[in-house]
Amino acid sequence: MFPCDFAWGAGTAAYQIEGGWQADGKGPSIWDTFCHEKGGRVFGEQDGDVGCNSYELWEQDLECIQWLGLTHYRLSLSWARLLPDGTTRHVNQKGVQYYNKVIDDLLACNVSPMVTLYHFDLPQALQDQGGWKSSDIAAIFDSYAKFCFHTFGDRVKLWITINEPYVCAKLGHEDGIHAPGLKEPGVAAYVVGHNMLRAHAMAWHSYNSFYRTKQDGAVSLAINSDWFEPSTAGCTEDISATERCFAFTLGWFAWPVFVTGDYPEVMRSAIDAQSEKLGFRGSSRLPCFSKDEPAILGTADFFALNYYTSRMVKPGGGSCGKMSMKSDRDAEEVLDPSWPLCGVSWLAVVPHGLRKLLKYIKDTFSNPAVYITENGFSQVGPLQIEDAQRSEYYKETISEVAKATQEDGVNVRGYFAWSLLDNFEWADGFSVRFGLFHVDFGDVKLSRTVYQSGREYAKTIIKYKGGRSR
């Protein structure tokens, strides 16, 4: 059902698990700043200062990874832990030592690391210079990427440059609910997304030119997308609205990389037209790529997909004239009442949506190799170690992935559950639990306990890769 070299993994991100926010020379990140500026930004005024304390308890995380029998582990590097001011002018050797140990320990246990360079935690020093809104950030990121390729690339064979640029752009610079907490509707998100694509492309070309021959790795960016379908099957207006949703989420970042080297035409035309209505004469809020910079097209060695849920779509209506991403897209997403909700209000349980999305990616982006780099199920409220519903979700979802590979011919190379541990879930703090292992944040030892879903995921891995059952 799955090839013998299929990647069975789980993921985490530095700010969400590491803690040690000031330890051993680490510089502050935008999430440190965002959480420390109180005022209802994060659930319960919580922060990631300690998190799962993986900076000190890495060996416990490794035990969890081994217990599950993972073949791969996805982690992110804290940019500010390695380069406190964001640049290579000052390298924090303690940070280098930490990640060297993590990578070496994984390999010693026959677990392959998938390393993300940027997972939402920009060094505050760079934010003070304009952050992702600054055109200079792409070259700065490229320098950081080259440092990481040089330092760790002899052992890391799977790289993600940037995680979920859509989320960073929209939630961090349009809605203001993620760091850096900016609310600049209709403008900043497009600039940020553009600079992230430029940064990714520069880093990919650097790897391709200077490191690929010796290191033989693969580089991509992780793109998040829901599955979208028309609210009313066969309705022309709903179909068009669905196409716009795809263009303004998945297509925003996948189209330039995999199809044309530029944004989807429906996205470009809608933003250009709305920009003119709003008085942006002779210019658009959606930037253009420069021919003087490295090409965007072809800068992914595989398709990295983060999928969580699905949405029904119909025309938005009533939003025209307002400067926002929503008015440009003019489409409204709604939940099908038959889909059960999973813990949080935005996450409907739709395993079959992943299969449909994988087929869409195959057909739209010339059948790339796909790694599902995030997929998960949240728990809120009273703790349930015996989380039968989540166990069933993983079973059904992996079954849908199998159908996508066997029946639809999608070239899926791996599946990474989100996440290894309960952790700091951004604006939701510790109120939402995605872990395969529960972390007791009320215990000074931050003890880890496997959920039923973790036990069942371990059995699934053993079933398909062979081995002794637990």
From TrEMBL:
Q: Tell whether Hydrolase is among the UniProt keywords.
A: yes
UniProt entry tagged with the keyword Hydrolase: yes
Q: Its Gene Ontology molecular function terms?
A: beta-galactosidase activity; glycosylceramidase activity
Catalytic residues (positions)? E374 (nucleophile)
Q: Which UniProt keywords apply?
A: Glycosidase, Hydrolase
Q: Which GO terms describe its biological process?
A: carbohydrate metabolic process; glycosylceramide catabolic process
Which cellular component appears as one GO term in the record? membrane
Check the record and name the Pfam families matching this protein.
Glyco_hydro_1
What InterPro entries has UniProt attached to this entry? GH, GH_1_N_CS, Glyco_hydro_1, Glyco_hydro_1_AS
Q: Which family does it belong to?
A: Belongs to the glycosyl hydrolase 1 family.
Query: Entry's PANTHER family?
Result: CYTOSOLIC BETA-GLUCOSIDASE (PTHR10353:SF291), GLYCOSYL HYDROLASE (PTHR10353)
Mind telling me what this protein is named? Answer: Glucosidase, beta, acid 3 (gene/pseudogene)
Q: Which organism is it from?
A: Sparus aurata (Gilthead sea bream)
